[in-house]
Write the structure tokens for this entry.
Amino acid sequence: MQTTLAPDYAGSADGAEAEAILRKCVHCGFCTATCPTYQLLGDELDGPRGRIYLIKQVLEGAEPTRKTQVHLDRCLTCRNCESTCPSGVQYGKLVDIGRRVVDAKVERPAAERAARAALKEGLTSPLFAPAMKLGQLLRPFVPAALKSKVPARAPASAHRWPTRHHPRKMLMLLGCVQPAMAPNINSATARVLDAAGIQTLVADGAGCCGAIRDHLSDHDGALADMRRNVDAWWPLVQGFGGQGKVEAIVMNASGCGTTVKEYGHHLRHDPAYAERAAKVSAMTKDLSELLPAIVAALKPRVKARSRLAFHPPCSLQHGQQLRGGVEAGLRELGFEVQLAAEESHLCCGSAGTYSVLQPELAKTLRDRKLGHLLPLAADAIVSANVGCIQHLQGGTSMPVKHWVEALDEALG
């Protein structure tokens, strides 16, 4: 797609990156077929091709409007279109740039600004955990619209962490909301890795991966989150004598994994962090990527096997381009695993903060997803991202959990 940047963007890093992405687009429209919002709304401007045109026009000097902003806001950043695109257009990076440019020129309504600020600061704050505990205590009185965002209090067993030491060690990011909303995911991960002879380490200084701020157009805040994590992990990554103490950095939230795997890209222009960020990205693995190597150690210990319906998060199958690994690993361990017969590639509507900022679209996508998953008559729905898990659980009484929790239960 031929692009002529306006002077304001011609010399900027965002402008150069956006232009390179735009030039790959041949406006074929294949992306519209797999875009959730285009499927629901049928509006060209609510599909990737239409949004690409909007971003191109702004970068070429057209004045963005509130309508431009709304169409970009409705994008889930699920990156399904990237899996479909025959030209390799990196739409996720482009829409993040487009949002930053538009948000710098179009002032949002006061209520939106307040909501986005609350999400950006609240979800990443140390106060989020006590606030969640208070919400759980008062859960019977929480309005129905918010109750699905406040999960029931986790049992004490959710915090049981293995104490054995192993020669093999891996780092894990606890995340910002996961320890408060679903603490058992992290402890179950540590227990499963312990059963495979791997010790899980946590760096106290690490926090939010940066995705929340980045997708809310706070690029500088996101980079600060990323630098903080690199600093927190580096002593364990580098180790003594440059040999390193850990084999990998394990992510059990695929949304965080997608972001951390792109630290090298985000910090490539920072001379103080570029090299270290690239190494951190190279060492980062989604938990499912460890399955082929640990299945043999776990298999003799599996005591019970259940029937599972697996929802692959967009951040796993489109963001990280990892497909089939969870299903293959669990099946080898004896589980019966099924994907939805239709639309397993489509987003469930969670998409980070999307379900809060775009509740109607998110609920429609959630109910559509559950409509394909529930007929599988599984014992539980499993996924690989805390946002998807909590969002889906809000629409069904069937248990929804992380696949590693199902595996942890099977190991007894």
